[in-house]
UniProtKB/TrEMBL annotation:
Sequence similarity: Belongs to the CcoP / FixP family.
The Cytochrome c domain, residue ranges: 109-198, 205-286
Cofactor: record remark: Binds 2 heme C groups per subunit.
Major localization class: membrane
PANTHER family: CBB3-TYPE CYTOCHROME C OXIDASE SUBUNIT FIXP
UniProt pathway annotation: Energy metabolism; oxidative phosphorylation
Subunit structure: Component of the cbb3-type cytochrome c oxidase.
The protein's name: Cbb3-type cytochrome c oxidase subunit
Keyword NAD included in the entry's annotation: no
Amino acid sequence: MTDNRKIDPTTGTETTGHSWDGIEELNTPLPRWWLWTFYATVVWGVIYTILYPAWPMVSGATTGLLGYSTRGEVAAEIARVELSNADLTESLVTVDLGVLAENEELHRFAVQAGRSVFAAHCSQCHGAGAGGVKASGYPNLLDDDWLWGGTMAEITYTVRHGIRNEEDPEARFSEMPPFDWMAPEELDATVHYVRSLSDLTHDATAAGQGAQLYADNCSSCHGAAGLGDREIGAPNLADAIWLRGDSYADILAQLKAPRMGVMPPWQARLGEAEVRAVSAYVHGLGGGEADVGEAAATPAD
């Protein structure tokens, strides 16, 4: 057999036979240390795919001989933290919410836990900073204007049962009827009167005409002075805080076709400890009110 190998005369190394512009490619052997390292990584890769989850299957992946799972590791860590906080969690479930703030350690634990619950479940509607979204009717939780009350017990009840949902028979419920049956001039007069309640720019003559319309159709819920009624979730119309906007067009639209939000009940989703924790967090955002005791302030709970 003829030996067709070609040796480079300068280096004495076999060439590959490839040549570019007279420059020939040397067939220099790989360093042994590099070669053995490469073989070792191949062996390690095979062993890894046997021991750990690796190969995707139709409905999952191979579990590996060791049965390792990152999900399991996270679950174990969560269980460890929950176990370490078991005493505080138990205390949070049983404490009277009206005196929660008096226990500094328990209150701090509740607020910190509630911050995480809020970020995971509430921020999508109320915003990461809890400032609400006026365009969508999501309330601002930072101010001191509460449709259903701002004590710890009242906030907890709202979180626990939600608002206008079909899942919980204990949900808070109120409904504003449409006033599209009013004549255009009556609607106009009512809007101007409502705007006058909070000292917004308005037509005084029209507002005067709308006073009786308001008294006949709106005062039973919002009150004669427009201060609202928390028992039925009727908003205060005499302050500077508006859930869906305070412009003439916003108020007119609400009169003709009322928009009412829905909040799901969180009791079954979160459990009592997390419901109380997120309530403590929301209460401490800036608008929470003093609570005289859970039993006195929680309706039909």
